[in-house]
Amino acid sequence: DKATKKVEINVQAAPGRTPPSPNTSRVTHLNNIFRLTPLANGLIDWEITLDVDMGLFYPLANLSMPEYLFKDLSYHKKLVLTEKYQKARLISVEEPGSPPQALTSSLQESL
Length: 111
Description:
This protein is α+β, with helices and mostly antiparallel strands. 30% of the residues lie in helices and 22% in strands. The protein has helices at residues 58-80, 83-86, 105-110, and strands at 7-12, 29-38, 44-49, 52-53. Strands 1, 2, 3 and 4 form a 4-stranded antiparallel β-sheet that branches. β2 and β3 (44-49) form a beta hairpin.
């Protein structure tokens, strides 16, 4: 959203996008939403909605999800603090007063 600078990332399962391969299981139900909203104090509100069926017994999945989420978010924090992502520019996010830039090949490779 250009006005609020809010970014929403929706990750969906696509089990049929590539052919099946031996010894590989596929997540067939996944619709995770990550909303990042800049706050007035310079911090970012990070809202996460997970809708996934990992094929586990639900009580087991519910017990394991908080640990998985903590590890995943810790990984993402380290990742976005690397120089590669600190200097990245996305074509869908424009800073006021900056001319839009083309998506660089190095950024395309990392997506």
